[in-house]
Amino acid sequence: MAEELSQVHLTGQQIRVLAHPLRVRLLGRLRAEGPATATGLAGLLGTNTGATSYHLRQLAEAGLVIDVERPGAGRQRWWRAAHDMSSWHRSYYLDDPDATAAADWLEAFQANRFVELAEQWRHGLPDEPAEWRDTGGLSDYLLHMDPGQVRALLDDVEALIERHVAASQADPRPGARKIAFYLAALPTNEEGDRAPAAAHAGWPHAQAEAGTAQPTDAGRVSGEADAGHVRAADTGRAPAAAEVVRTATAADDDAVLGVEEDR
After folding, report:
1. Phi-psi region of 63 (alpha: psi -120 to 50; beta: other; left: phi over 0)
2. 12, 93 Cβ separation under 8 angstroms
3. pTM score, two decimals?
4. Which of 45, 110, 170, 222 is the most exposed place for a label (fewest CB within 10 A)?
5. What CATH code is assigned to 7-88?
């Protein structure tokens, strides 16, 4: 039976610590690959052991990674992620401008990482086996919902993802790969919206026309990690057009950041 993913709701201190380019990647690697040493992580991430050791200690002080003992490890310290997933809500940090800035940084990091991943997948398509070329895709839909309806939609999608994650863990198959799955629901400025031309395109062979929204926050196991989904925060606004973007691409280990925005 697949184990339930553990989750941490990031405090102001934790999100401030996590909002750092190397720490994000270290935590992602540990979530994706399991326990590792500072030396091993330094080799994977192209940095030095001193830097990884320092930043792992910072993550440990924040309760995001754990120093674990391994038989026969000698003086080497092994580290593992304390949780499978991080989550947060902007309202947690209303009185903490530094934490709010950290949340902004994480959003920008993940949006940029999504663009990088999408470009890598697009440029690598000619070298992909035939069965994978049409698997990765991008869809977007222009909806008209209030905050409660958006939350209900995302809850339904999350439940569906959880079911498929459990099924894939219970039945590992030859040829399976890590998949970065991004989900974002983004309220838009209706006055500036284009005509609602929703598309479900086999990406990158066609462009989705409903919008150009990008995920604002990160998802499931991974600074780097495993799989991702995004929750939109409750805006408290009147019904608005919500851009819902779904993407799925074959992913490397540094695909997505293990952060989910609470509702």
Report:
1. left
2. yes
3. 0.69
4. 170
5. 1.10.10.10
